[in-house]
Amino acid sequence: xxxxxxxxxxxxxxxxxxxxxxxxxxxxxxxxxxxxxxxxxxxxxxxxxxxxxxxxxxxxxxxxxxxxxxxxxxxxxxxxxxxxxxxxxxxxxxxxxxxxxxxxxxxxxxxxxxxxxxxxxxxxxxxxxxxxxxxxxxxxxxxxxxxxxxxxxxxxxxxxxxxxxxxxxxxxxxxxxxxxxxxxxxxxxxxxxxxxxxxxxxxxxxxxxxxxxxxxxxxxxxxxxxxxxxxxxxxxxxxxxxxxxxxxxxxxxxxxxxxxxxxxxxxxxxx
Length: 271
Description:
Oligomer: single chain
CATH class: Mainly Beta
Structural class: mainly beta
């Protein structure tokens, strides 16, 4: 089904040198889905650097809410072009208003020593059931291209729980061979569950929670496929001043740590 295709949601059209344009889905509360803006920004940057380099980090800030009725323009500025490293600044704008800004860095892979944190113990995705969970106040169309299987069902309930969860996820459809497409896909998917981890201790009957992402950082450590199962280990370490900070690590089926993420979100409580 067309609505389950992830790859087209990540793509941008080049309109001139250093300028690209894309369309984004409605996310929560009528705003553009921020994870898609970040993913498209990464793709715009990838189309502006040598193709032999893999994205290794995205550091971004959501400046204003976006309007899904308008296209999003992406302006890419090359900050550094070295022998093995490239860095781009990407500003996303609508009607001359910047809604997102970020730095995307790329690296020509180099050989070297290797170590990582161990993957957590978890049931495999084939032992779990697919989840149709859509968080209150969000758009199910945004989640449709990603298949989710939660290790602990409490993550999708409204019962208060510790701020941690394990989630298997993958694109429902194949994403091809370009590494930056997989990096963009993982950026998109991470925004669907990471800040939700911070909501888990705050769930109370009669209490509403209205959230908005403030920033989003991704690090890509090793090559991976976002259309294969990845285990997303997530936890929130702080909630203060209505701001929550969450962290996550992505492991493949062999327990290899392929990427990490951190995100801060504004979560306001009301009745």
